[in-house]
């Protein structure tokens, strides 16, 4: 992927895609972790009770989603070198991608690219494995949740810089625009997502497109009159 800033933001077009249940049919985090544990570190299955306990706490509102994400990361992956993480992600992608990446998403990206849009994925998924999907679909850039790293550059089970979710996702997109030298006033933004947490980015975009929404987003879509598409049809 090429993150080189464009020479000029005049008349730029950017199409931003959510990942889980938008580009993919299923969420990606749990399938990735299951692959990593079963195929690369089956001894970590012994830590499953700790993950289930954390999920239960999350279910009753006693644990933040970011904390649960970090607990799952620690239990299933621990600390990983970047090369090890990339290798696991590549093997997972070879199994997950063919069945779970929506053909309609690929077609829409091709159409957007042909219409002059720069293709960007913005996701709460960790970048160390979402990169494999972004590369597979030919995205121009990836905006994702990052992990902290230690002195050796190894990935730690701790979120760095915030979760790319809800208002946080919009803030990261705006930071990416600034880093790329893109002027929002002269850039047309098209945004695709399935989830109500992305309402801030839908509102910020010029061309919101709702993809196979869950019930809460369907209600907002009906109120706002946003276009809706079915990528499973």
Structure description:
With 233 residues, the chain is α/β, with parallel strands linked by helices. It has one domain: HAD superfamily/HAD-like (Rossmann fold, 3-Layer(aba) Sandwich). 46% of the residues lie in helices and 19% in strands. The protein contains 9 helices and 7 strands; from the N terminus they run βαααααβαββαβαβαβ. It has helices at 29-40, 48-59, 65-76, 82-100, 103-114, 127-137, 167-180, 199-204, 215-224, and strands at residues 12-17, 118-126, 141-149, 155-160, 187-193, 207-211, 228-229. It has a 7-stranded mixed beta sheet. Strand 6 (207-211), helix 9 (215-224) and strand 7 form a beta-alpha-beta unit. It is globular and about 50 Å long. The mean pLDDT is 95.
């Amino acid at each position: 992927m090429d993150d080189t800033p464009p020479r000029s933001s005049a008349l730029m077009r950017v199409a931003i895609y959510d990942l889980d249940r938008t580009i993919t049919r299923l969420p990606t985090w749990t399938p990735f972790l299951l692959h990593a544990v079963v195929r690369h570190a089956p001894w970590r299955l012994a830590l499953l009770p700790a993950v289930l306990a954390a999920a239960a706490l999350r279910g009753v509102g006693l644990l933040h989603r970011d904390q649960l994400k970090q607990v799952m990361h620690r239990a299933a992956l621990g600390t990983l070198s970047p090369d090890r993480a990339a290798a696991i992600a590549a093997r997972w992608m070879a199994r997950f991608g063919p069945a779970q990446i929506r053909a309609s998403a690929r077609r829409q990206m091709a159409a957007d690219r042909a219409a002059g849009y720069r293709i960007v994925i913005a996701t709460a998924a960790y970048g160390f494995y979402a990169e494999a999907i972004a590369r597979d679909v030919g995205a121009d850039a990836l905006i994702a949740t990052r992990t902290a790293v230690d002195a050796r550059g190894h990935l730690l089970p701790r979120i760095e810089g915030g979760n790319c979710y809800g208002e946080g996702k919009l803030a990261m997109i705006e930071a990416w625009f600034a880093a790329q030298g893109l002027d929002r006033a002269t850039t047309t933004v098209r945004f695709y997502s399935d989830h109500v947490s992305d309402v801030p980015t839908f509102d910020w975009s010029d061309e919101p497109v709702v993809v196979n929404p869950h019930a809460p987003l369907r209600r907002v879509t009906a109120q706002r009159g946003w276009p809706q598409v079915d990528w499973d049809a």
